[in-house]
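Need Phosphonate ABC transporter ATP-binding protein's 3D structure for a figure. Predict it.
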Amino acid sequence: MIKLKDVDKFIDSKYQRTFILKGIDLEIKQGEFVTIMGPSGAGKSTVMNIIGMLDEPSQGEYYFLDEPIHKMKERKRSELHKHHIGFVFQAYHLIDELTVYENIETPLLYKGVKSSERKSLVAEMLDRFQMVAKKDLFPEQLSGGQQQLVGVARALIGQPKLLLADEPTGNLHSDQAEEIMKLFQKLNSEGMTIVQVTHSKENAAYGKRTINIVDGAIDTDSTH
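Structure prediction for Phosphonate ABC transporter ATP-binding protein:
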């Protein structure tokens, strides 16, 4: 499903080239639950952003669903991203001016889904996450855990093939974190491919494979 071949990411300044990623070779199959770990500044989020098409490699090849992303025009890339990838962020990234309902609905508007279908999909998500009573509230009226559930619902509503989670429980207390991780595990058991970046060994244990990145390169890759 995902294939990175000899991917580098670097920043050129006047006199030198600084590598953020160097020689990344990585393959992730459909239905895997993969954790990316490593010290701060190791390049974890950069790998995640390249997989999620929010960033481009400086060199190397990236294939997603057998499509050569590195050769694609911006517009085609953004179409693929919109239709196949859901993102969950540590900082929730909800839109403050929109209600829970409207936040969850947003990706469907981008995809041009018609109104009646949007209504039923949002209703289904609200029901699934037990948020029906909170649908008219704004993000600031919710706890951190509830905001993250809204973030997950929004990521899932477009029925993505791949869910990317960047420190998804970083701002949550342990009960809320456990709830989110169990939800990811359940989604994975239903066939969703998940890649998470985390510092937490507890969170990594929910997945089936852990990749350690050190100084911009893959240090270890183990299945458990």
